[in-house]
Amino acid sequence: MAQGSAVEGPAMPLATRIKWLRIAMPALAVAGAVAGAYMLLNPQRGGEVRPVEVECRAGLLIPLYAYPMPTRELVRLREEYPGLPIIVIVNPSNGPGSKLDAARYAGAVEELRAANITVVGYVYTSYTRRPLRDVERDVERYASWYELDGLFVDEVMCDDNASHLDYYRRIAEYARSQDFKLVIANPGTWAAEEYFGVFDIVVIWENPRYPPPDDLSRYRGLRDRAAVLVYGQESLDPQALRELIDNVKWIYITNDGGENPWDTLSIHLREMAREIAEASAP
User: Fold this and answer.
1) Is 21 left (phi over 0), alpha (psi -120 to 50) or beta?
2) Closest Cα to residue 128, out of 88, 81, 92, 169?
3) Quick one: how many helices (H) and strands (E) in the chain?
4) Is the Cα dihedral 35, 59, 145, 124 positive or negative?
5) What is the pLDDT of residue 53?
6) Given CA atoms 14, 20, 26, 28 in this order, what sign does their dihedral have?
7) How far is it, in rounded angstroms, from Cα 244 to Cα 266?
8) Can you give the residue ranges of every domain in the chain?
9) Which SS3 state, helix, strand or coil, does residue 246 take?
10) Neighbours of 96 (CB within 10 A)
């Protein structure tokens, strides 16, 4: 037989062909749907970026206290998942640092913002012990030296004490007076609901383990403004991640640990993005 030739056999009876089609068509439809879902949620193939066209229910809040910043990997992630909200927190020197720090970070910040990635600057408050004027100076330096979208206010109290809330309210108001549109607070633990009236996003968990689901569900009504940060995770727990997606909008899980678990980019970055996109797919 010549290579590439075909041998014709007896024709299949019409009734048999109809019966075969009735059996095969549902299976082919399922196979097509599976293939489509695979292509949708697996954007890279052969080096080519295939954007995942899904508006995601959750986003990534990425503390990235590192220099140089791995901007190319984040920009690539944005190209792959254009519907995934991404916020990056920069921390040049426990705050805005100096004008020299600002010059070093300028290119990275510009690259991220050009890719439609939101960038916010780190400010600490020492749980209200830091003088307000010192915090305001950091806000002013960020406004003068950097091109940012907002601020990340760290070491925030979690109780409903009136004087504590007033302290943070003044910081948030001052930040907005400097044209920062987004102000994020980090109590790092279960916070009084009043903080959600002061800040745009509140980090309710920063820990080396996942939050208990029963406690987490208390914030479901505030989901769009709640965030969870988990560090020290060598592997990603898909079930725990799905629980987070159901209860909070802003998520980040990293393998990093030690004194500063935010000085490298998580090895789980793309797996998180894929899981979020899958959970958001219609």
Assistant:
1) alpha
2) 169
3) 9, 10
4) negative
5) 84
6) negative
7) 17
8) 15-43, 56-280
9) helix
10) 27
- The answer to whether the beta carbons of residues 226 and 247 sit under 8 Å apart is yes
Helix axis angle, 269-280 relative to 14-41, nearest 10°?
A: 130
CA atoms within 13 A on the CB side of 178: 25
Burial 107-125 (b: 16+ CB within 10 A, else e): ebbebbeebebbbbbbbbb
Number of Cα atoms under 13 Å in the Cβ half of residue 228? 29
Q: In b/e form, how buried is each residue of 58-94, taking b as 16+ CB within 10 angstroms?
A: bbbbbbbbbeebebeebbbbbebbeebbbbbbbbbee
Confidence of residue 46 (pLDDT cuts 50, 70, 90): very low
Cα separation, 211 vs 218, in Å, equals: 12
Q: Which residues face 88 on adjacent strands? A: 62, 119
pTM (2 d.p.)? 0.83
What length does the chain have?
Answer: 282
CATH of domain 56-280: 3.20.20.70
What would the pLDDT profile of 201-215 be if each residue is shown by its tens digit?
999 999 999 999 999
Assigned token pair, 132: 């307000």
Determine the average pLDDT of the residues in 104-112.
Answer: 97
Classify each residue of 162-191 as buried b or exposed e, where b means 16 or more C-beta atoms within 10 Å of its C-beta: eebbebbeebbebbbeeebebbbbbbbeeb
| Residue 240: both structure tokens together | 């725990």
Q: What is the pLDDT of residues 29-41, one digit of tens each?
A: 434 443 444 444 4
Characterize the bridge pairing of strands 44-45 and 48-49. antiparallel
- pLDDT mean across residues, the chain: 88
CA–CA dist 20, 215 (Å, integer): 54
Helix (H, G, I), strand (E, B) or coil at 99: helix
Position 14 pLDDT exceeds 70: no
